[in-house]
Structure formats: C-alpha cells, structure tokens
C-alpha cells in the first residue's frame, strides 16, 4: 500500500465512481490515511497479536513488554522463545494457552509453515491465510489484519470484523448486521480496493450520531405518533 504521505488517488477514484454511498462517505471522512510500516517482522507481529487477544490494550502491552525484556536486546525470535524456560514466560504474565500458542508459532516459523515476508510476497492472500491459520490461536481475522496493516495488501475484505460489518450496516441502512455472502456481493464493486473500502467502513462505524436503519425508522415512527397525538380533532367531532 501507499504511505499516508501519498494520497490514495487511484483507490478513491475507483471507489467513488463505483459506489455512490461510499463516495459520499469518502467526501465526509476525507482521504484515506492508512499506512504500512517500512520494516515488518512476521513472527513478532503474529506473536504480538496472540498476546493482545482478549486483553485490554494497556494490559497486553505490559505483558508483551515483560516478555520482550526476557531476551537479549529485547529481540523476540522463534529460536529464543522456544529456548526460554516456561516458568520465565509464565512469570511475565502469559497464560498457559497463550504460551502454548506462542511456542506453536515459533515452531511453525522455524519449520517453514509460517512463510517469511519474502515468501509471502509471492503468495496470494488466501495462500497466506491458509498457511498462517495453521498456528494454534491464530484465525483468519488475525491474518487479514496483518495483510492489510503490515503487508499492505489492497484487496482484503475482513467479513468477520465487527467494525466493517457495522460500518456497512450504517452506510447502506441495513436492518441487521450483514452476513458474509451479502458483504461479498456488495463488495464486488470495490475490487481491487477492498482494504481501502474496509478502512472507510471502520470510519463509518465510528462516526458520531450514526444509527442503523432499524433504529432510525423506529425513531421516525415514534415522532409521527407524537405529532399525530398533538393534532386537534376536526370541528363538529
């Protein structure tokens, strides 16, 4: 993906021409500021994702910091993690499940199950998802976030992400959160820029005052009832 310093001109032009509602959202939110790091370590990124699972950000950051402090120069590598005694890692705050997942990630990184960044450059999104999802504790969503925000893949649609689903529900005034097949059908016009469109779905979900169509309709119906109740009866009745 392009950096935040360079506008996503091609992506925004395509999405705005293909989808009228998304065009209005883009105009409201402004340019996409999504960026990817110049340097990226696959193992450390996935290890961080495992540590952060089901924890508040501050608590997860503290645990990750203590884990990294166990290693020389805070360098967390697959071989070093496998060599570190379990009691030391548990003492840093890792649960048994997360420790098991991290060790599985380390082993699968060393045996080649988890591809290197260079190998990933030659693989499709689905190939990467299939391989990395073999690691205990890592599912499709985690890999999709890596594809978007670390590898810079422009055409990823995370259909399991609540924020993307909520943004789509609000933007298109759906009564319920859309299901996967409905999201995929609607996103066909977004290709090959689904990652950028997903970024705008997240922004839409965060907009203040946005309401799902169902709630908006309920509020309008309530207002109509109150208005009707204030009307005076016709003369002679």
Q: How does this model look, in words?
A:
Helix 9 packs across helix 10. The protein folds into 2 domains: 80 residues, Endonuclease Iii, domain 2 (Orthogonal Bundle), CATH 1.10.1670.40; 108 residues, Orthogonal Bundle (Endonuclease III, domain 1). It has 14 helices and no strands. The N terminus and C terminus are likely disordered. By secondary structure, it is mainly alpha-helical.
Question: How helix-rich are the residues, as a percent range?
Answer: 55-70%
Structural class of the helix and strand makeup? mainly alpha
Count of domains: 2
Radius of gyration: 23 Å
Could you spell the SSE succession in H and E letters? HHHHHHHHHHHHHH
Strand content: under 5%
Q: What gross morphology would you assign? A: elongated
Kindly report the average pLDDT value.
Answer: 87
Largest sheet: none
């Amino acid at each position: 993906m392009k950096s935040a310093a360079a506008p996503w001109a091609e992506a925004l032009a395509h999405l705005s021409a293909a989808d009228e509602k998304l065009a209005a959202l883009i105009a409201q939110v402004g340019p996409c500021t999504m960026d990817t790091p110049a340097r990226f370590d696959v193992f450390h990124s996935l290890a961080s994702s495992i540590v952060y699972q089901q924890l508040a950000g501050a608590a997860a950051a503290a645990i990750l910091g203590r884990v990294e402090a166990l290693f020389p120069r805070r360098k967390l590598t697959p071989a070093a993690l496998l060599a570190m005694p379990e009691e030391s890692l548990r003492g840093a705050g890792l649960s048994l499940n997360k420790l098991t997942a991290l060790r599985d990630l380390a082993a699968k990184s060393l045996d080649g199950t988890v591809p290197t960044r260079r190998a990933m450059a030659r693989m499709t999104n689905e190939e990467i998802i299939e391989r990395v999802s073999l690691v205990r504790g890592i599912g499709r969503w985690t890999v999709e976030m890596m594809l978007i925000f670390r590898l810079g893949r422009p055409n990823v649609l995370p259909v399991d992400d609540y924020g993307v689903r909520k943004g789509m529900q609000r933007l298109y005034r759906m009564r319920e959160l859309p299901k996967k097949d409905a999201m995929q059908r609607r996103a066909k016009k977004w290709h090959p820029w689904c990652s950028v469109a997903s970024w705008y779905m997240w922004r839409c979900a965060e907009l203040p005052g946005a309401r799902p169509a169902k709630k908006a309709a309920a509020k309008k119906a309530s207002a109509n009832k109150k208005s009707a109740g204030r009307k005076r009866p016709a003369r002679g009745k």
